[in-house]
Backbone:
């Protein structure tokens, strides 16, 4: 039986799509993937040192994160989940904000437009992306919305409602699902009885595409194509990017409890998305010998700076917890703020709790 | 000025708002061609078209969730939930997102969204069509909740809700949809979100209430004034969140007696919050304990039981007499 959902590939012996990525973009994608890997490794260490809280790394998913986001235009809307700081970075969110977020110091998106706060309840942001897309379309704006989520997210009701809605209204939205094999400790085989996730697109009358999620150039192209379809009025696309979560679910998780080491080993080494892209670009002469090493060294400097910026940030103040809840703070809420400032402000003054 | 009921007042307001501002869109189940199951959106689909009066699939979470996205994306969506009993699939969106986006985006985004919800009982409705779950909503930070009890307030509060930069839940007491007409002017009516309304002034006892119960309270107050010379003050909260505790305190400081009246179940109902605010702001003025007249802590029963489940005039009058006897 022919495979109804062929895997879209650009890199590798089984490539079934021509490479249409400009060399300079390919190098930028490689650069950002290295940055993301470097950032994740650094932040995991910070967590071990107790300097940031729980952190969900995207180790192994750099191609899907970075390749997909490079296909967007700045005015496209992004609705990310908690593991998408790679895509956020490409779309304009500095890594220092991601560290601040991991430090419990607030928003993941300060100062950046067109990116929603990372959604924590699984798949609950998919309807937002649909609404953003419907708004753009109604306001005659030529941009799309993209939602990022995982394999586990396809089991939630909001996944169904969002795809169904998007299909009915032909909303210019992309549902970018990273099938990384696991939802914490539950394998994708226990998430659904269907052999693929992408085939669910058929049920909603939306376009589906299955892409090699460790092939950064394929991820880039497949999103670019979905984006063009959306803008042409041809509606939404569900993309299943097949990848693998090399690391733990979060720094609080121990995958040894539930996942065989042999499975992990299959996805590291030659299948590593950064290794794959580096070899490919070096083979084409797009990356000169030694350039990858320089990119890695620069990444370390860059990431250290971003982390230092966050670690050196001023302590938070009580009032900012209240500040943006409403545009204008209601009287009763202002009284609550004053009460806390009276109590804790005094303690801080004496070198107390929050000094 | 034309006399009209609440359905017409809301319909007229929606029509005016949509004519004024092309960003205003309606979405919900059966709101389009059918004009809504209560006919609140009658004629709007014809006038403004299917792109602005959107019949959605049957999916409450997506209705509220996509409306959140639309609001962030620059529209002024007004979503309708067909009955409050069917709001619950959308509670995740309300609890998890609607009121959090402002804080979670450090003020980068606001959610100027209105969710209209017909609610409340006493109408012999089928099962699960008469819930009064306002307390859950009021408990949720970051949103506002309003309940008009007159056609005039319906118009004014709807204007205020649509113009508000933050998400507003607009509760429409089903029982009042066609009960009573009053003069409502064309065009903008000014009823800000926040201030309560002294629906009737009096000296002996304060009844604090909202929604359809306001009418019950008015009837009881008139009866008691006529038959027993009792002077009842009625506070119609109108906005449940943020609550106008100042008007409540002022009234109770004057009368020294308070009764909270609501049609929702008693335990952890909003009445408890009103009692707490009275305790904080008017304790030393109280001549008698604050009383609650509410529905019972049972699921809203089939309507053969409705008249026992809901507060009645007798129960409210009894509570008022007790308070005065202390
Ligand atoms: C509604 C909801 N239920 C449970 C959780 C707890 N939780 C956080 S991540 C996660 C697994 C998600 O897996 P998947 O969607 O595959 O994304 P991944 O973590 O692999 O990126 C769970 C159960 C949650 N955040 N939200
Ligand atoms: Mg997963």
Residues:
């Amino acid at each position: 039986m022919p495979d109804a959902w062929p895997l879209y590939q650009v890199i590798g012996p089984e490539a079934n799509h021509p490479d249409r990525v400009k060399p300079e973009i390919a190098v930028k994608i490689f650069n950002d993937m290295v940055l993301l890997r470097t950032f994740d490794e650094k932040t995991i260490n910070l967590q071990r040192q107790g300097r940031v809280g729980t952190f969900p790394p995207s180790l192994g998913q750099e191609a899907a994160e970075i390749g997909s986001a490079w296909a967007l235009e700045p005015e496209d809307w992004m609705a990310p989940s908690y593991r998408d700081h790679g895509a956020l970075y490409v779309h304009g969110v500095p890594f220092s904000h991601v560290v601040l977020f991991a430090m419990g110091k607030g928003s993941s998106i300060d100062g950046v437009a067109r990116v929603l706060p990372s959604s924590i309840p699984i798949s609950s942001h998919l309807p937002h992306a649909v609404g953003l897309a419907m708004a753009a379309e109604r306001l005659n704006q030529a941009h799309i919305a993209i939602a990022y989520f995982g394999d586990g997210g396809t089991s939630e009701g909001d996944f169904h409602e969002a795809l169904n809605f998007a299909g009915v209204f032909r909303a210019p939205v992309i549902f970018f699902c990273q099938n990384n094999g696991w939802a914490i400790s539950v394998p994708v085989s226990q998430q659904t009885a269907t052999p693929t996730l992408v085939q669910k697109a058929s049920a909603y009358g939306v376009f589906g595409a299955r892409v090699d999620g460790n092939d950064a150039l394929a991820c880039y192209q497949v999103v670019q194509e979905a984006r063009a379809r959306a803008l042409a009025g041809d509606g939404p696309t569900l993309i299943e990017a097949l990848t693998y979560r090399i690391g733990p679910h979060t720094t609080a998780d121990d995958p040894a409890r539930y996942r065989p080491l042999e499975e992990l080993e299959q996805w590291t080494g030659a299948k590593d998305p950064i290794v794959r892209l580096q070899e490919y670009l070096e083979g084409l002469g797009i990356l000169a010998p030694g350039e990858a090493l320089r990119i890695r060294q620069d990444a370390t400097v860059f990431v250290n700076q971003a982390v230092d910026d966050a670690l050196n940030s001023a302590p938070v103040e009580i009032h900012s917890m209240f500040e943006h809840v409403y545009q204008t703070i209601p009287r009763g809420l202002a009284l609550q703020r004053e009460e806390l400032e009276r109590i804790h402000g005094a303690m801080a003054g004496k070198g107390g709790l929050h000094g | 000025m034309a006399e009209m009921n609440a359905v017409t007042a809301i319909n007229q307001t929606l029509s005016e708002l949509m004519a004024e501002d092309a960003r205003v869109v309606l979405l919900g189940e059966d709101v389009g061609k059918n004009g809504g199951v209560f006919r609140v959106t009658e004629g709007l689909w014809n006038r403004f078209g299917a792109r602005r009066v959107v019949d959605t699939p049957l999916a409450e979470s997506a209705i509220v969730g996509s409306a959140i996205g639309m609001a962030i994306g620059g529209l002024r969506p007004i979503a309708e939930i067909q009955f409050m009993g069917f709001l619950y699939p959308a509670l995740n969106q309300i609890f998890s997102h609607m009121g959090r986006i402002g804080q979670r985006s450090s003020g980068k985004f606001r959610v100027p969204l209105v969710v209209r919800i017909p609610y409340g009982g006493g109408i012999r409705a089928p099962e699960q069509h008469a819930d009064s779950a306002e307390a859950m909503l009021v408990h949720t930070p970051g949103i506002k909740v309003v309940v008009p009890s007159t056609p005039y307030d319906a118009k004014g509060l709807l204007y205020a809700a649509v113009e508000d930069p933050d998400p507003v839940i607009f509760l429409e007491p089903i029982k009042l949809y066609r009960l009573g007409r009053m003069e409502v002017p064309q065009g903008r009516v000014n009823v800000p979100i926040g201030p309560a309304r002294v629906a009737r002034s009096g000296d002996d006892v304060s009844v604090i209430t909202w929604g359809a119960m306001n009418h019950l309270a008015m009837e009881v107050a008139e009866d008691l004034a006529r038959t027993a010379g009792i002077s009842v003050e009625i506070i119609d909260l109108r906005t449940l969140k943020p609550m106008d505790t100042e008007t409540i305190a002022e009234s109770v400081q004057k009368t020294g007696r308070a009764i909270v009246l609501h049609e929702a179940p008693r335990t952890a109902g909003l009445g408890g919050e009103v009692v707490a605010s009275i305790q904080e702001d008017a304790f030393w003025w109280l001549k008698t304990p604050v009383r609650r007249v509410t529905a019972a802590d049972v699921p809203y029963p089939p309507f053969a039981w409705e008249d026992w489940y809901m507060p009645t005039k007798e129960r409210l009058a009894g509570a008022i007499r007790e308070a005065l006897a202390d």
Observations:
- Residues 242 and 309 of chain B are 28 Å apart (CA to CA).
